[in-house]
Amino acid sequence: MTVPTRHFDALIIGAGGAGLNAALQLANAELRVAVVSKVFPTRSHTVAAQGGVNAALANVMPDSWHWHMFDTVKGSDYLGDQDAIEFMCREAIPTVYELEHAGVPFSRLADGKIYQRAFGGQSQNFGGEQAARTCAAADRTGHAILHTLYQQNIRARTHFFDEFFALDLVRDAEGVICGALVLEIESGQPLLIEAKAILLATGGWGQVFRTTSNAHINTGDGAAMALRAGIPLMDMEFFQFHPTGIAGKGMLISEGTRGEGGYLINKDGERFMERYAPRAKDLASRDVVARAIVTEVKAGRGCGAQGDHVLLKLDHLDEALIAQRLPGIRELSKIFAGVDPAVAPIPVFPTAHYAMGGIPTDRFGRVAVPAGRGEEIVAGLYAAGECACASVHGANRLGGNSLLDILVFGRLAGKDIIEFVKENPYQRTTDPLSLELALARLTRWDRQDAGISVATLRAEFRKCMEDHAGVFRTEEVMAEGYQKLCELREQLAEVRLTDHSKVFNTARIEALELVNMIDVGLSIAVSALHRRESRGAHSRPDYPARDDQAWLKHSLYYRDGDRMDYKPVRTKPLTVESFPPKERVY
Ligand SMILES: Cc1cc2nc3c(=O)[nH]c(=O)nc-3n(C[C@H](O)[C@H](O)[C@H](O)COP(=O)(O)OP(=O)(O)OC[C@H]3O[C@@H](n4cnc5c(N)ncnc54)[C@H](O)[C@@H]3O)c2cc1C
């Protein structure tokens, strides 16, 4: 089959905040840059981010990047790399001002400065009073950022391939990654895009769990592409369950609600977070609050007829404040929970929210894999945003640090690609065999005999992940989950489509996504099964303590043989002293 081919200096897969901020650097430097996105760019999940982006601007309360760094290291349960964290927290300040100047309509204080709200895990003076570090555009910060970045890219003439689905990375005859095979969803035709550098910015994979705050498109395609290219995924066991999803549905109720003065109660009307985190209470870090909610429900103190959730109280707040600062939350709550939070509390329960792990990169977005005793950069391949793991979140991410991560590291990957392309100006040519392998992933779905449906296997898979890799994990539960996942992986071969048309065949896209999700799900399950300690979001009742002696190290999962490897945490920051591991209390 001959496949039409296009050439660019850089190919960016993903048009969320990470992809668009990288593209903007490249287009402004007059490079030919292609951005591929399976949905229209402004529908990327970044658009859904509510609460805001962290930067120690000190507009509301005293603050410094060093305190931000401390909170992030502590929040990560000491698994984050301190050089990358220092870098991100310093860069946060110019990054937010750059966004402001690019046109992001932040909410304002009376003196005209950017509005900042309190968020979980934020402190002053290395663990002192609550800080207010999260810069917000009401409760639609991601929307404001994504639209601004898209408009700036249009101005800079970035070339967009909207509604193109990336299938797989391709290599030249020497084995160097030199492009990607993509599928035009509208026509069903494949297209080969070759480029000198490639950035994966495909976002997270919350869809691997049944109850999630994530968009339907968050299926981990880029992470699975990396796995198939032989690249390991790092720290995959650390998946964040956000404490306040709408009960039974999963849609997110931002931590900003608690930052504005909301709090959680159990069926006795008790403000139970006071027992779990005496100082930070409802603004303790997310893993702590999520575990507290599950514990309350398990102890029979849950609300509702089934006793299966707790309540988030906002009705004591001024209605004008809710209307001004939390309009989106109010709307979501009315639609999905049938509750106006200005009048009655919202039923909430933890929801699968954010991937701390991902494709391992250095501080410049370059994909870095173990080689011998050290590491080696994969030439021309970059990753940024939620799909990547520059290791700034470690075992638990703080709210407001992901928008920051995608913007800082997206921008830096863009800058590094400019240099890389200068030094490597020649385009490599795809090896026919590599192209054939990628095409086979597509033609496999043309088989017409009977089999299992995508929907059936997907439902079983997502339930399995929820039941066996959730908030609390024991050896027994996880081992059983791994067995089931292996069976589901085998069953993939039996999955068939009934609709074989080409034009806008979304069933085929869902099938391709399912394959990716199962690969990513296994990486989570296997990594979790191996880590015998409790750290951050990975909570094991059978190993309740954090074990720095044995486990202060990053996990690396390889698809080949479900193999695990480990590498040390970088505890040395760039310019300041390191924060040694301490017990984490809020
Ligand atoms: C409801 C919600 C609220 C949040 N609120 C906050 C917040 O207030 N503060 C904060 O810091 N973080 C927040 N987060 C987290 C944060 O928004 C995300 O981690 C971040 O936006 C991810 O950005 P990204 O650029 O990595 O990916 P995304 O924005 O998810 O974009 C991924 C892109 O990849 C493309 N893509 C994926 N697969 C393919 C494929 N196979 N082919 C082609 N294109 C592909 C998609 O089309 C999309 O353009 C929130 C997350 C959610 C779900």
From TrEMBL:
Sorted alphabetically, the keyword list is:
Cell inner membrane, Cell membrane, Electron transport, FAD, Flavoprotein, Membrane, Oxidoreductase, Transport, Tricarboxylic acid cycle
Name the pathway.
Answer: Carbohydrate metabolism; tricarboxylic acid cycle; fumarate from succinate (bacterial route): step 1/1
Q: What is its EC number?
A: 1.3.5.1
Record-given protein name = Succinate dehydrogenase flavoprotein subunit
Task: Enumerate the residues binding FAD.
Answer: 14-19, 37-52, 221, 386, 402-403
Question: For the FAD-dependent oxidoreductase 2 FAD-binding domain, which residue ranges apply?
Answer: 9-403
Catalytic residue positions = R286 (proton acceptor)
Sites binding substrate sit at H242, S254, H353, R397
Q: Which GO terms describe its biological process?
A: anaerobic respiration; electron transport chain; tricarboxylic acid cycle
Q: Provide the membrane topology annotation.
A: Peripheral membrane protein
Q: Which residues are in the Fumarate reductase/succinate dehydrogenase flavoprotein-like C-terminal domain? A: 458-586
**According to its UniProt record, what is one Pfam family this protein matches?**
Succ_DH_flav_C
Locate the Tele-8alpha-FAD histidine modifications and list their residues: H45
Gene designation per UniProt: sdhA
